[in-house]
Amino acid sequence: MKILIPPHHRRLLIRLAAAAAVSTGLSTALAFKVDMYAIGNWSGGNCAPGDTDADRGSWPGMATAWYDRMGAIGHSKTGKFVDGNTTLQRFCDPSFDAGCLDFAYVDWPDAAIVAAHGFDAGNAWGALMRNSWKNQCSLRMGGAGGTTFVGDKSLKFLHASSCYSLNDNYFSNMRVAMKEPGTAKGLHVMTGFHGIMWISSSFNGDYRDTASDGHVMPVATAWVTNHYKSNQFSCAGYDPFGWFGTCQDQCPTAMTVGPSGGNALNRLLHERYNNSAAFGPPTGRSWYAWMGYRGCDPVGENPFNP
């Protein structure tokens, strides 16, 4: 099922295998704990030692823009983790390894943003850490064989500022990572990017606006509409303004899970940061709903076409 939403976002499509959204007027004030995890310097760690080409000095500032705005709105800023000893241990679930500490880090707050180099880890999001832990330098989120399963503690909203963090081919695999089997809770909304995303302090405002807008519109919509960029990147040298169609896009995506199609889609279309208590955690993961710009053509990946 495809649903077209407002004319000013004419290309933004939401697709679900079945069922329509059920409108809700739920609104509940809610103060969150919010964390940010960002790497800008890999060359000083041991996962990419000395590799200054991997460094992205502007990246932590992008995550900070979201984090600070969430704090200004009234949420509690409970953890700003930049560079340092950023390892898999902070992002992996004890079901993967008994030494994992996601319950004290990324799965502890209500909302979090992660900024790190990403890659397609076999129909799953892979993210490069700064330092190794138990000889592993990356997380893998998606599928039963992953390292990262979130939402079973407190996390409700996870924003992945990372390339390939939510490709169109990951959606089905992400379901188990968003609601671990046998757990009562689950991740409410996951956001990321299909293909390459871009890094610059000029994008700080997009992250700041996501935080603000996610209180007056669905978090999925706030993320996807603020981060979508059309024909702005990797243009041919002879075509800096995209007049010949050589420029490519930035393609933000979002997804939810639920026990039915209508349930997942309703959450995608209506859940904001400040009404999440009324929605509660997903009670199943048999279905998923996604949001993105159909045909969005990023660097490094085929056009978005779930």
Question: Any descriptors?
Answer:
single chain, 306 residues, 25% strand, 6 helices, globular, 18% helix, ten-stranded mixed sheet, alpha/beta, three-stranded antiparallel sheet
How does the SSE layout of this entry go?
Layout: E1 2-4, E2 12-15, E3 33-38, H1 59-73, E4 76-82, E5 111-115, E6 118-120, E7 125-133, E8 136-141, E9 157-161, H2 171-178, E10 189-194, H3 204-213, H4 219-227, E11 229-233, E12 248-258, H5 261-270, H6 276-279, E13 287-293
Parallel strand pairs: 3-4, 3-5, 5-9, 9-10
Antiparallel strand pairs: 1-2, 2-13, 6-7, 7-8, 10-12, 11-12, 12-13
Helix pairs in contact: 1-3, 3-4
Give the helix proportion (percent range).
10-25%
Report the count of strand segments.
13
Percent of residues in beta strands:
25-35%
- Described by the principal axes of the CA atoms, the overall outline is globular
Mean pLDDT: 89
Structural class: alpha/beta
**Total DSSP helices:** 6
The biggest sheet amounts to: 10 strands, mixed
List the secondary-structure elements in sequence, H or E: EEEHEEEEEEHEHHEEHHE
- Terminal Cα separation, in Å? 12 Å
Explained architecture:
A hairpin with a 4-residue loop joins strand 6 and strand 7 (about 125-135). This protein has helices spanning about 60-75, 170-180, 205-215, 220-225, 260-270, 275-280; strands spanning about 1-5, 10-15, 35-40, 75-80, 110-115, 120, 125-135, 135-140, 155-160, 190-195, 230-235, 250-260, 285-295. The N and C termini lie close together (about 10 Å). Residues about 1-30 have low confidence and may be disordered. It has about 300 residues and is an alpha/beta fold. The strands form 2 sheets. Strands 1, 2, 3, 4, 5, 9, 10, 11, 12 and 13 form a 10-stranded mixed β-sheet that branches. It is about 20% helix and about 25% strand. It is built from 6 helices and 13 strands.
